[in-house]
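ARCHIVE CARD
Drawer: 12
Card no.: 0347
Subject: one protein chain, sequence and derived structure
Cross-reference: see card 0346
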Amino acid sequence: MFFMKKYFILLAYLGALLFCNRLSAANNPAANPAAVVTSGNMRFTVLTPELIRIEWSAQSRFEDRASFVVVNRNLPVPAFTTNEKDGYLIIATEKLTLRYKIGTYPVSGDPCNHNLQITLQVDDEDVTWYPDKKDPYNLKGTTRTLDNAEGDVRTWLEDGLLSRSGWAVIDEKLPRNDGSLSLMFDGSNGVDWVAQRADRESIDLYFLGYGHDYKKALFDFTQIAGKIPMPPFYVFGYWYSKYQRYTEKDIRDIVDEIQEHDIPLDVFVIDMDWHRNGKTGSDANTEWTGWSWNKALFPDPAGLITWLHSQNLKTTLNLHPADGIFSMEDNYSSLATALGVTNGATIPWNIEKKPFYEAFFEHILRPHEEIGVDFWWLDWQQHMIARNEANLGNTFWLNHVFYSDKKLQSQGRPFIFHRWGGLGNHRYPIGFSGDTYATFPSLAFQPYFTATASNAGYGYWSHDIGGHQQSGVDDPELYLRWIQYGVFSPILRTHATNASNIERRIWKFPNFRLMRDAIALRYSLAPYIYTYARYCYDTGISLCRPMYYDYPKHDEAYRYEGQYMFGNEILAAPIVKSDRGADSVAQTVWLPEGKWYEVATGELLEGDRVVTRSFTREQIPYYYREGAIIPLYPKVSHLKVRPDTLLLEFAPGNSGEFLLYEDEEDNSSYENGAYTFTRITQSKEGAVSTYTIHPREGSFAGMSDRRAYRLKLLLKSQPSKVELTGGEPIAYQYSDDTKTVTIDLPAQPCNTEQTVRVTD
């Protein structure tokens, strides 16, 4: 049944893309008037059959501007009815029934009599919500930072968009964890600027009554709150990072050593020591805030970045902006002139004011971008609320301004590296989760934390792989298991604090080969991961997501929090505990119904049960779903090239399908139709298995005309016959040890169909 459902979903997927993209291409915060019902001081907007906006304003000053969370309300109007009966306004869709006592304040405070309520069915039972109802079953979202987190800190998490109760509420007036509010955008050109609400005492709620259809809830959220943008392709490679007082020579030496040790790499992060102390102009010390290169460490910044680019690497600089711009900064005078500062005083940080933003970016940031800085790391640690704009959260606002400014530039695909600023931040990927402790309990929390963040649409967390701070010497086993988890996380970035007892150069460890193998596995998975970045953009469903998205009626899907789906085809259950020197550790995994191919052992396991398996240090517990098709890269040293040959692994199963996605990788043309899908299928009838690579659909600049494929048929018996369409025999290799059939298809035009039939 699952495969039949998946088949129709995939067929519908391609057809739905154009419609959905056209629908959300130009966000319109004003709803279709046909969706709006007004009753005195109340206004209701029926956005979908499961989603209703609820507003109250004593002044009847309702908001049609975009908010920090919701940027588009102009959706197709769903079917609904309205009528008045016994003093109540009743609005009914096919999923929800809303009753409002006309002329009253929506929050009654009476536990027995509610002025406003919504009923829906959840698992064939009637459920009623009212405005002050508490929900103990919310499945949570994420939090601003894991700074100083040790072990399980789920109590830090904000509520998310999904709940086992079957309903959730977005309260736009509820203070966020940092004390800020979701404010409004003023609709100005360029970077859309902050504005206060017309009625600061109003109520503005969005009721989501999706039952346990979690995927639809997330899709509809991205229709009103904006899509989750695709990061550039290179982001999914390996990032080398460490907070350390590197010199220009140190960086060149590290890159050379990485290449000498045959480690793939795409991003080199330069932490805060890139800049000098802006307060004193000293090259000997550092401050958190600074904007000028420390020439004692980096005598030729432009030359260094040019050299990094020549090594196929991107780079980012760490920023701590809160202390402002000091008089000793290189470009202080031009900024001061632009802002009318004449006394040489420190220019305070004031990003909430547009003139400051415009002058600061022109005179302080642009010179760095012009020599090649690819993106910014916003490591905001200071005051949470902006000084000159009421209720404005600095974290959210920095993310919005920096990302929006990057989007206005024509070079590269916009993204930034930053901390979570609250609901709506999914529009500004990617996140930096902060300074965790290097312990197994902290590692054990990260699979749950990362998957759960998708409940708020925040699917691109980057963790300090290995842990940020530690006591004592490095634990090679811990670092290995953290890297192996990083293979199956959104971003693979090793990092640590500036401490002599912490090493992040993997070639310095006794288990270096295993660490490098894990990073190589990450690179082989790049086309699979990138396909699911597109899937996330189109559906709102993140790469790493909890098991209950697919299995909402199974208690195991909620209980086994250390495992998660990595895309639709892979179940990941990384090792997050020590084997205590035994070189083997037991891992308990819940396998849903169907069959699951355990990649580490090559065994096919029956699902619908809990299994306990043993894994050595070189093994990572991950599973291909029955019938899965996994596109893989051959060995590459970075993600700036497209290999001429693509590997396709076919898991055992009677049927399967995959839609391989490709685009230009580092621009925004994908938002306007510049991309391709290649449909790949497998099926089995009797003793004959058929594997088909269908003609590529779509186009983009620079796409390959021809491609070769290597097919790997997993857990197969020795075939009696392997042939192409028309019965032409084709050579193959068979491994009796691994039970794998390997078939090499020579390069063919990508617009042709290639079919292989294998007879057992």
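Annotation on reverse: The first helix runs from residue 2 to 24. The chain has four domains: 25-133+168-208, 234-542, 547-625, 642-759.
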